[in-house]
Amino acid sequence: MDAWIERAAADIARRAPRELEALVAVSSPSGDVHGANECASLCAALAPDEAKVERVPCSSPSHAEDLVIRLPGTGTRRVLLVGHNDTVVSHAEHKPLARVGEQLVGSGAVDMKGGNVLALGALRAFAARPELYAELALLLVCDEEWRTADFSHVPRFAGFDACLCFEAGELRDGAEGVVVRRKAAGTIHVTAHGRSAHSGSAPDRGANALLALAVAAQAVASRHAPAGPSHLTAVPTILRSGEAFNVVPGHGELFCDVRADELDAIEDVLTHIPAEHEGVRLEAELIRRWPGMQAEAATEPLLKRATALLGRRIAPAARGGASDASHFAASIPLTVDGLGPRGGKAHNPDEFVLEASLRPRAEVALALIAAALGCAGASTV
């Protein structure tokens, strides 16, 4: 392993548990302005002194501003690091960080405050080597977990040489795994317009929105084909209808999570939802569009250079979950995700980071950043 990477990763890992404890202590579900601002302030405090900190408009209206930390250098290449501070865990279910055996357990620990801690540590490490880069930037958004608006940050980082996202890491066949392929993701929203009626004395005068939504849910689920050519997954997830136990529900809504290799396959699912069912009008729309990411070929040389710096193999992997890396992949071909620590139970109050993974994953992150900057070995790092 490159000697500088080994030393810098050890320092990042030494500080990471305390920094993760501080960040996880802040409950920051998507859309919560106070939690997002508190996380941004904490991350700014953990940034290197040389960095410029700025707040920029979030992609989602009514959210707190996102955070951009820019580290200027004297080199030639620019690399973007990406993370998010929002979680899916509500205030009521939030749990602060606690050490349970080999696990650091707490809400948002692995998705993805653990990754943010490693990204901030990497910035501090490279702050001492400004000759290696023209700019390192870290973008931390506060709406990744439930964004339906278009992602607004791609033009802001036009011309960057690489994008590295710090979602959770993994092992792949015993090697350090990083993500170079992700599915496209979409959220289908179906609104039912029926007619209410007394369910005891006049049930047939109503038009049951709940039953119509059940038909729509079955239509979506019928397209589920993870082993098919598009690797399509189509899963109804939320159904709301009815206001009283003795009233035919006259309205309601359905949400479905749909993922595939390309957005076209997700758009096609919409065509299989009926426009009407037994007097109930159904309106279906795709309210969330995340592009796919296919960076295998473009990133293969990068992973080879990083492997040489690390002294052990970095393996490419595919993942079904979406992330903001996908939004950058079309304009920044050298896009790699999954640089964060290993852990589990994401989107759960008891999600965790494996403490022993902090140092090796910091080494992976430093090696990939160095490789993206064109460093070839100890003489240049």
TrEMBL record:
Domain of life the protein comes from: Bacteria
Pfam families: M20_dimer (PF07687), Peptidase_M20 (PF01546)
Xref: InterPro entries: ArgE/DapE_CS (IPR001261), Bact_exopeptidase_dim_dom (IPR036264), Peptidase_M20 (IPR002933), Peptidase_M20_dimer (IPR011650), Peptidase_M20A (IPR050072)
Keyword Phosphoprotein part of the UniProt annotation: no
Keyword annotations: Hydrolase, Metal-binding, Zinc
Cofactor(s), names only, from the UniProt record: Zn(2+)
Domain Peptidase M20 dimerisation intervals: 182-273
Signal sequence extent: none
UniProt-recorded name of the protein: M20/M25/M40 family metallo-hydrolase
Lineage of source species: Bacteria, Bacillati, Actinomycetota, Thermoleophilia, Solirubrobacterales
